[in-house]
Amino acid sequence: MSDFEYANAPESKAIANISPSYGLFIGGKFVDPKKGKSFSTINPANEELLSKVGYGDKSDIDAAVKSARAAYTKIWSKMPAKERGKYLYRIARIMQERAREFAVVETLDNGKPIRESRDTDIPLAAAHFFYHAGWADKLEYAGFGNKPKSLGVVGQIIPWNFPLLMLAWKIAPALAAGNTVVLKPAETTPLTALLFAQVCQQAGLPDGVVNIVTGDGITGAALVNHPDINKVAFTGSTEVGKAIARSISATKKTATLELGGKAANLVFEDAAIDEAVEGIVNGIFFNQGHVCCAGSRLIIQENVADEVLEKLKKRMSLIRVGDPMDKNTDLGAINSKEQLNKIEEISKTGDAEGANRWSPDVKLPTKGFWYPPTIFTGVTQSHRIAREEIFGPVLSVLTFRTPAEAIEKANNTMYGLSAGIWSDKGAKVLWAAKQLKAGVIWSNTFNKFDPASPFGGYKESGWGREGGRHGLAGYLTSDSKVNK
Amino acid sequence: MIIDGSEKSLRKFLSDLPPVDQVGAEARAAMLATRSIKTSSKAWAIDMAISMVDLTTLEGADTPEKVKSLCAKAVRPDPSDLTVPSVGAICVYNDMVKIARTELDRIGGKSLPVAAVATAFPSGRASLAVKKIDTQDAIDAGANEIDMVIDRGAFLSGRIYDVFEEIRVIKEICGKKAHLKVILETGELVTYDNVRKASYLAMLAGADFIKTSTGKVAPAATAPVVLVMLEAVRDYFTLTGTKIGVKPAGGIRTTKDAIKQLVLVKETAGEQWLTPDLFRIGASALLNDLLMQRMKLRTGHYASANYVTVD
Amino acid sequence: MSSLDVNKTYKLFIGGAFPRSESGRVYEIKGANKKFLANPALASRKDLRDAVVAAKSAQSGWANATAFNRGQILYRIAEIMQGRSEQFVEEISALEGVTTKVAKLQVAEAIDTWVWYSGWCDKLSSISGSQNQVSGPFYNFTTPEALGVIALFAEGKPSLLGAVRTLAPVLAGGNSAILIASESYPLPAITLGEVIATSDVPGGVVNILTGKTSELLPWVGSHMEIDGVDVAGLNKKQEDEIKLVGADNLKRISRFAPANHPERILSFMEHKTIWHPIGI
Prior knowledge:
heterotrimer, A: alpha/beta, Aldehyde Dehydrogenase, Chain A, domain 1, Aldehyde Dehydrogenase, Chain A, domain 2, 2 domains, six-stranded mixed beta sheet, globular, C: alpha/beta, three-stranded antiparallel beta sheet
């Protein structure tokens, strides 16, 4: 018998210079919130305090929007497009230079494994800036007319699951298209946004082009409702997305919304089974399942279900849960107590409604917020765990008999963000892709993102696309749409 | 019985195997390569890797003296540190087997097996009669293990039953005297689907070990190839209850490379395979890098090649 | 006594290295003030042959790198060029006889040209590829692909910008290049090679030759491994000549207006259309 236990392999925290406190980033400087209030952000892996950041209220939002408007009118909208692009290139390069620092801070603030922040979040974030920097002076070729115009000031609200990456998805295209921004990071993950503000300073970005106002839901609402913003960009829950749509209904504001999902991951009998199992694991356990496009409903062709499940369980036993700063950790901490409660509540309905819960034997740390990787088999479409977004490492497993049945079950949801197809037969993959009502379809892969690839959902998963040429549309005026 | 020994049942079994997706397999291997193996686990891995090395010399210029000094290295890799384990085996051409076996017995390496390459290694291009004699010679000279090559030409032209039969016949000659490693020469098979099929074919025909390469062709033991072979032995065990070993050979030169192999084993076939009885590494230069890394762990500073022996 | 300048020897740039011409020949370049500047190599047809071998062997690796990677490298060229601005300004002033101010503008524009094309690498199929709505149960899409080895005859003046304007777009598209510097204003092209050599560009992707245009022209035109030509630096007669000879392997030959445009990339690309049935 062997004894190949992986010893602790911690990434060093030393590189992260987290200040004990941060102000709001308005007009190119860090300033105290007008009412002087602040709130704490903790490390969800051990509940330790990381920093106290400024609490932005309505008056701070107002100051930020004013600053963004002034920067737009006086500087940014007048600047030659190629110079705008160069600021974005500078930002991208500095993010690459400071990549390790960003990765460590992201892991400490969010709870995700350092391997993921290091290998996925941060490189993709820098790539988004690099990609959009290239569009800044090429908008006339993007298919939006000869002289596409920016909108003005954009209010952006981002979630806690991929803090820096979501910031990049919002700010990069907005700036490339010539807008200025006020961005409100998520309450539990403000730190990499504040580090990003420092990068803006290092890049010499003109004051007021980017403003970062930390706060909570009330801060976000103040931003959405501010009379002098032209557009809202939001990523978060469908519930809040609908509230935003109602808030702006009588205004001239446009919005792009990137909301929830309950993606089906379809495994056909002719799939490359071992790779499909990897894809299933990646689909629901990557980032602790805190992913809007997570493959949270596994739908297996019945005649290979036993084989797939047996391999899946064996593979799940290899998942290493623990200290996010350990380079060998696969599954990190749940981002907050609140989220943990939600996961536990919905998962319990799985037990109550008769599904079969299974988790490998994992030893969870005592401090911090943790949930083991979990699957429920014997799930049907009528179970709550098959309908509601859990946003955690919990997979619901269903089966299908024919391709048509697979599609029917996959589409039977109010969401439409993403889907997965596992089959080695090209025609079948394309056929299924054609039938599925989802904005992003992964065939024989999952959770793949690229700045050149448009991302967004059908139905109640949102409005609009982010990334690619299509993603620019949300930040340019339309030749044809009228805003009354 | 999963096959009945006929060509028809062999073909059906192999064509029913699930496909391998190249991008997915390579991604899985790449992810496992990011495992960070430090301190105590690194020390354990180094010693385990040393004990798994099939210390090899397969050159036209091999001489009796060259083989004898290899034997000394195999038994006592570091004369200044007797806590270093001996290697897994010695691997030589079959006309050097007698010299190797005699020398090992003389210097305290009685328990160290001698593996002989056979069946017109490395190309496999000779008649079955010649391959049989090649194997018998090695066994008669005292080889404890036979590393045979499959006929890649037959495999690639679809004559899989010929490949199967050859392995079966060589296994018969080995009998109880030697364990049989079957070299697939994955670099010539090219696709992962072929590697999977060839792995099962070899196991069904009686291989005790499946081996990636002769070391004479690149690419050799790449991580995704070893991954696919480990999946094959894992699933074959589920199917039959029999554990077959895996031997990557060629291109594994550094401690880092070797440790990546052990991670692949642990997280694919499982901990049960982490023993020289089920996993070997065909290498020559690797051993000294393992010794230097071992020294670094002991002393805390980077070692120099001056402090390890050149065979 | 102040320290004597160590004058540069201007060699060719082939396969990532700086060899002399295999013919051993050089020719004299004098500055605008008629003072001796340098003896750049006088490339022979064998140097061209070697450049094509290098370009051919490097091309598929370059085309198969991700577009993101190509974009990063072209941006890196801009970064390194920025760092060497003063060297280029001096060289251009001496060679072309323009003021420092005018030379600075040229260098700035050359740097911006690299940045502009760097941003195109991963956007080409957005503007030139498509999924086509054919009648039938088929998935049909068109995608641009690199052409291969492209020969570029750079304009004389502006000596640096003219070279960069032809080179950056063909690299953005995944091609490898053989840049034939202007006969009379060759020096910045070789210094450009030094920038390229230190910018993570794989050896052979860019090759730069100096010499007599009329000597090299027929060999460029007839070489069957050269797939395309940009004739910016040729006169009408030379252009006609190369079109006549180039017809033997149907070289794609173009002349562009002296400005940046994605067409300069797309003209040196192929478009492949793929069909695949849709069905269970």
